[in-house]
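Narrative summary of target 7.
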Amino acid sequence: MGDQLLEFSAPGPRLCNASLGGTDLSRSNYLFTSESVSEGHPDKICDRVSDEIVDAYLAIDPESRVACETLVTTNLVVLAGETRCSGEVSPARVEELARAAIKDIGYDQDNFHWEKSEVQVHLHPQSAHIAQGVDAAGNKDEGAGDQGIMFGYACTETDVLMPAPIHLSHKILEVMATKRKNGTLPGIGPDNKSQVTLQYENGKPVRATSIVVSSQHDEGLTQDDVRELVRPIVEDVLPDGWMCPEDEFYVNPTGKFVIGGPDGDAGLTGRKIIVDTYGGAAPHGGGAFSGKDPTKVDRSAAYAGRYCAKNIVAAGLADKCTIQLAYAIGVSKPLSVYIDTYGTGKVHEDEIAEKLQQIVDLSPRGIREHLGLNRPIYARTSAYGHFGRAPEDDGGFSWERTDIVDDLKAAFGAN
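Modeled conformation, tokenized:
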């Protein structure tokens, strides 16, 4: 969102636009853009592999500790990090999971192949010094797995209470992936990107002003071929009448995109944090999610922030809500809870923060237990956003539930 300054006014600091640029979301008429990347993007391959390892450990021991990073490049996959578990996930099993993930994504290319690529596993035991700070002991409750700040956000722009630009960007790529895998999008590869720019009028999105889709494709397809394959998907995802002008519909702007995936660009876990969250429409604390077990508040507290913000908006207490949570490693409570409703709140932000903490335990343990996070539910989060998804019966995307709406309404005497 560009350079920002802090403008201090009751009840607390609010973000405002700096003179060097950026988008001021308090304005009523503006353009705003968000991007998404597909599951076959090199960085997203890494997120998927890392989260497969998290799930493998949690399936054996719900109290496992995992911090797994993945790197991919031409026919090479490298995993490194720290783990702790009452059972064992062998290096052979880690390699097997990595290959299976890459196969599912769709990579069987000469220079990046699920079966032929080299896989190196460099996982080692978690530091005892980290463990002693995080684990519960004696009268000390479990502490946060690291220090840091995390943000949650929700707004009324879409039915899933997500900003429209990132929501639509994700949907374009999700549909492309589904069609690619079922054979109805011939010649399209797994490495894709989308970007959606929307016109806002009176603070509401009303149409797309430009769409960008970059799609890996077979050698035999031309730029026009790819354009005509992608066009109906974009038109179907956008609301009626929202399609951008023809001269603002960009498909493979460089003209050709045959060499893609890790052969075209190396990938790393955790490099798509804005894609993972709100597409730049809300602040981000800086920590990545994938590859981390839920004692790491980078992940769990960001999920809790989204859960709380979504329930606040769903309860009708505000049309837009940002929540910031802050933690210190080894400390079993949030250091601060800050809420901003951007002038849309029906009650004061400080009151919302106070009542919220009476309803939801925002300690690291409280978050994990309330949202049921000690389960193997993370590989599915690794592409198309961690937020705006449907809660699943096995506990997946539990942070998307709106099950404290009635409690919040009751706390403020609302019907």
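The longest strand covers residues 188-201.
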